[in-house]
Design brief:
heterodimer, A: alpha/beta, Rossmann fold, two-stranded antiparallel ribbon, 31 helices, 12 strands, 7% strand, B: alpha+beta, 3-stranded antiparallel β-sheet, 3 strands, globular
Chain lengths: 724, 53
């Protein structure tokens, strides 16, 4: 099949008279992208779809699959489904199972018209294993021969026409990072592809009776798919219990040995691939010196230097989040409070108050944290993109094992710094059940970005802004201390879990080292954009809704109690000679205390008083159970209502808060107690929901809720009682 | 585990070279085949690979 001179009979550009088309807008093609990890699949996906993606890895939305739309030709659109990276069609971990669920069921609504297989041209032998399996399933395919530049540098020459002949599918040489070859790929993709004629491997004769039985029973179109049913019936989602029972009987009767068959198949396929490569690839070693990646590894995974560099990177991250992000955060905070003050100066009435004290105060609590969230996700994306994250798992494996975790647990734990929801889903790449469960259970103890608002505001309140030893900021160090507290509690909890849980299988750690690459800034930018957008919309909706509700509950009270409280304060006024602002503050405080929210907060105050919290913080703790980041918005709304002063920044409101004796409410003891509470407490509905979904049992999320919240209560109690 | 090693290209006839170790001695870095790609493998897993001169 020719690639370079495609005939586009159906594509006509608008305005040019062409042959009438049977259907002016053909149905979008459905195309799945599949390939090894690190084969440049994500780059290709981003090149094809641009900003036209639907990604949901925030509360409640699935990360199983990313999909997006690409305009292949003026007339042909295609839905592109990005599948997780895998080495073979025999899933070893949960994320790989998504692929088989999609490709085994022809009746599935998302069954693709064809697949684009991305392979690493510098690593063709191993990449082709997956391709030959897909080909034998009879799926129409295009081979995207990616990373041609790397292959050329390694002295690998590939005869593309010969490879097309051997594989029976179109082969497009490309460099997805630079966008080379995308146009040619789009043209080939726009054509309807036929199933490839070549078979690479077939089940042996002794297996044929079993395979044929399965094939006819299920009405399958191909022997190899039937073999996969025999291999994987326990894991195929769409089979009924009866079907599974039947397959179990069939395989037992035939004496089918799954492991031996898979091993024989893999060895057989590699033998065939070697033959193909002999015809199509010549390798001339141009350079004898060690590849650059290996030389970088000598430094970055050095016995001592490796850990120091890792610590330095983490430290830079915290400095960035705290010190550098402070300026844009202050601008946003001041901008919003100026806007609120401006509105209040010009307009009056309850609706204006709702807008400024409810909506704007709550919104400020969301928008203000965009710089930090963007920095954090950007940093993590760069570590992932460059290939450094793989080295971190490699260095950490032995350190993590005593805690019942594996090196692979490090990635969920580190992404837990951003958000526990995608991090818990990321634990799917851990093959061992026990390692995975422990990782899921302890990941929420890592301080996520939703805690940043609480940390930032409270640390700034009680820790002086001073440089220590000339370089690092005392507040940055305090922030890092909170993160370390989260990390150590996660490790300690993992150690306990290791003693409690029984292993189902041996854990292993086999992983490819990706070659170091410069990060693709477009991918990093896209990740930041998507995460910030998700944060603003998903968290923003909740926060604004809660802020409005809270404003109403804090501004109005049951019956005439508010009016009675206000009258009482005004009655006392002449005796105390309060000046007007003091009177105003006392009136506002009395009204808040007798409002719906105040009544409610008063009711729970006895339970949290030992921790140093009053009923106002009690309200904020309760709303925080929906999501932690609500805390700042809540406290800001409550204090706005309760302090008769002009609207200030969030910081000013907290500083202005007084206790019953008229002293500043936020003493170091109170602030640290509250900080420690937020380090440990499980206050995130989305995390509980995703833990339930990933573990398929309420036991795990309930365990997290009880364990973490109990830990938070005890720790905050100890801190307050010791410091006060 | 053996299947995973096979799928990653650690099949009979391929050359294997130990190129490095993690700072704490385990896991190992193995360089495989002509393409020279690097796998990270725990020492206990590497022990299951049979070597021949």
């Amino acid at each position: 099949m020719a690639v370079v001179t495609p005939t586009l009979a159906t594509a006509t550009s608008p305005g040019v008279p062409g042959p009438p088309m049977p259907d002016a807008r053909p149905r979008p093609l459905r195309i799945a992208l599949i390939g090894n990890p690190n084969s440049g699949k994500t780059s290709l996906f981003n090149q094809l779809t641009g900003l036209n993606q639907k990604v949901g890895n925030f509360p409640g939305v699935t990360v199983d699959r990313k999909s997006g739309f690409a305009q292949l030709t003026p007339a042909q659109r295609a839905e592109i489904i990005d599948l997780p990276g895998t080495y073979s069609l025999y899933p070893k971990s949960l994320d790989e199972k998504v692929i088989t669920d999609l490709l085994y069921d022809r009746a599935a609504p998302n069954y693709p018209d064809f697949v684009v297989v991305t392979v690493d041209a510098s690593n063709l032998r191993r990449s082709l294993l997956l391709f030959t399996q897909l080909g034998d399933l009879g799926l129409p395919a295009v081979l995207a021969l990616n990373m041609m530049d790397v292959a050329e540098r390694h002295g690998v020459r590939i005869d593309v026409p010969a490879l097309e002949r051997e594989l029976g599918v179109p082969v497009i040489p490309m460099n997805a990072r630079k966008g080379i070859g995308i146009a040619a790929l789009k043209i080939v993709m726009a054509q309807r592809l036929a199933a490839p004629p070549v078979r690479f491997w077939e089940p042996s004769d002794e297996l044929l009776p079993l395979v044929r039985q399965i094939r006819y029973y299920f009405g399958l179109h191909n022997d190899y798919l039937a073999l996969h049913y025999a291999q994987q019936y326990r894991q195929i989602g769409f089979l009924s219990t009866d079907d599974r029972g039947h397959l179990q009987d069939l395989t037992q009767q035939a004496g089918f040995n799954s492991t031996a068959q898979q091993a024989a198949e893999t060895i057989g396929r590699y033998a065939r691939i070697n033959d193909i490569l002999l015809e199509t690839v010549t390798v001339t070693r141009t350079e004898t010196r060690e590849p650059v990646s290996n030389r970088i590894d000598k430094v970055l995974t050095h016995r001592v230097g490796g850990y120091l560099i890792f610590l330095a990177i983490l430290f830079t991250l915290f400095q960035a989040i705290f010190a550098w992000a402070q300026y844009p955060m202050d601008w946003i905070d001041q901008g919003i409070s100026a806007l609120g003050a401006g509105i209040q100066a010009r307009f009056h009435g309850p609706l204006v108050q709702l807008l400024t004290e409810g909506v704007l105060a709550g919104l400020g609590g969301v928008l203000m944290f965009i710089p930090q969230i963007a920095l954090l996700f950007g940093f993590l994306a760069v570590l992932e993109e460059t290939g450094y994250m793989a080295r971190v798992t490699f260095m950490m494996d032995k350190l993590m094992r005593p805690f019942g975790l594996s090196g692979k647990s490090v990635v969920p734990l580190i992404s837990g710094l951003a958000c526990a929801v995608p991090a818990i889903m990321g634990a799917r790449t851990i093959e061992s059940w026990k390692d995975r469960m422990i990782t899921i259970f302890v990941t929420p103890l890592m301080s996520c970005s939703a805690r940043i608002p609480v940390y930032t505001v409270l640390v700034a309140l009680v820790v002086p802004d001073r440089a220590v030893a000339g370089v690092f900021n005392l507040r940055g160090a305090a922030l890092m201390g909170l993160y370390l507290l989260g990390l150590f509690s996660a490790l300690a909890s993992a150690w306990v879990m290791k003693k409690l849980l029984k292993a189902r299988e041996r854990s292993y750690f086999i992983m490819e080292f990706p070659v170091y690459k410069w990060p693709r800034w477009k991918n990093v930018g896209l990740t930041i954009y998507q995460k910030v957008q998700a944060f603003v919309w998903q968290a923003g909706k909740v926060i604004v809704a809660i802020s409005v509700l809270l404003w109403v509950l804090a501004s109005y009270g049951p019956g005439q109690r508010q009016a009675a409280a206000e009258a009482q304060v005004r009655q006392q006024a002449p005796a105390h000679h309060w000046p007007a602002p003091e009177l105003g503050r006392r009136v506002a405080a009395a009204r808040l205390e007798t409002s719906y929210a105040g009544t409610f907060g008063r009711a729970i105050e006895p339970a949290i008083r030992p921790l140093g919290f009053d009923w106002k913080i009690g309200i904020a703790l309760l709303t925080s159970f929906a999501a932690r980041e609500v805390f700042v918005g809540t406290i800001s709304t409550i204090y706005s209502v309760g302090q008769d002063a002009d609207l200030g920044t969030v910081q000013q409101k907290l500083r202005a808060e007084k206790d019953t004796a008229g002293q500043p409410f936020f003493t170091p003891a109170r602030a640290f107690s509250l900080l420690v509470f937020y380090v440990f407490a499980m206050q995130c509905m989305s995390t509980l929901a995703v833990t339930y979904r990933e573990t398929k049992s309420w036991k795990w999320p309930l365990g997290q809720l009880v364990y973490m919240t109990g830990l938070a209560y005890v720790a905050a109690l100890v801190v307050y009682q010791l410091c006060a | 585990m053996a299947l995973k090693l096979l799928e990653m290209g650690c099949v009979p006839g391929v050359t294997v070279r130990l190129s490095g170790r993690a700072p704490l001695g385990d896991p190992l870095m193995l360089v495989l085949g002509d393409e020279e790609y690097t796998l990270s493998v725990r020492a206990s897993e590497a022990a299951t690979i049979l070597l021949k001169d």
